[in-house]
Design a protein that fits this description.
Catalyzes the reversible epimerization of D-ribulose 5-phosphate to D-xylulose 5-phosphate. Keywords: Carbohydrate metabolism, Isomerase, Metal-binding. Pathway: Carbohydrate degradation. Helices cover about 35% and strands about 20% of the residues. It contains eight helices and eight strands, in the order βαβαβαβαββαβαβαα. Strand 7, helix 6 and strand 8 form a beta-alpha-beta unit.
Length: about 220
């Protein structure tokens, strides 16, 4: 199965957001990754519901929404209404993770869990059956354009081992510092979805960049 690509709209030109979304519609991308940051859980603020609704208005790809926020439960229904099809919450921000995942699924969305670089993948072993997607942060969350953390490959392998042992179909998504060099290694380690922001939107031809990522073997 080919790798799935989720360009991060956070790296797009927001003065031309409709044009950028239409470019992604025409690309071989599988998702549009939407990073929501509150300035509390991470040291940055991105955007809220009005901008997300504007993205959804033009998007023909599923919105993969990554909540880097505290108290995500109180906003889950609003993100669903704004167009989310996948919602990932951070393990570190959820006191009752199982309940949060059931809430997301009850809204009709796929439920994801994101892990910061320092958080052990083994913490998900007892709940992996309830997770549709695990988003492994391969940079410290909060800012785009950071350097990829090399220990990510080992984390992917360990998580893949848990998924295989449990016999579930949970997907592994990698978020941060993805490029043409590490993408094949991530796929080999067991990754299913690659998030790419600056690497796509700062490239000379984003359509070709997405196509090349998609075609890695």
């Amino acid at each position: 199965m080919s790798i799935q690509i989720a360009p991060s709209i956070l790296a797009a030109d927001f003065a031309n957001i409709q044009k950028e979304v239409e470019m992604l519609n025409a690309s071989e991308a599988d998702f549009i990754h939407v990073d929501i940051m509150d300035g509390v859980f991470v040291p940055n603020i991105s955007f809220g519901f009005p901008v997300m609704e504007a993205i959804k208005k033009h998007a023909k790809k599923p919105l993969d929404v990554h909540l880097m926020i505290v108290n995500p439960d109180q906003y889950l229904e609003a993100f669903k209404k704004a167009g989310a099809e996948v919602i990932s919450v951070h393990y570190e921000a959820c006191n009752h993770l199982h309940r949060t995942l059931q809430y997301i699924k009850g809204l009709g969305c796929k439920a994801g869990v994101a892990l910061n670089p320092h958080t052990s993948v083994e913490l998900l072993e007892d709940i992996i059956e309830d997770i549709d997607l695990v988003c492994l942060m391969s940079v410290n969350p909060g800012f785009g354009g950071q350097k990829f953390i090399g220990n990510t490959y080992e984390r992917v392998k360990r998580l893949k081992s848990i998924i295989n042992r449990k016999g579930v179909s949970t997907m592994i998504e990698i978020d941060g510092g993805v490029n043409q060099v590490n993408a094949p290694l991530l796929k080999e380690a067991g990754a299913d979805v690659l998030v790419a922001g600056s690497f796509v939107f700062s490239s000379e031809n984003p359509l070709d960049t997405i196509k090349n990522l998609k075609s890695i073997s």
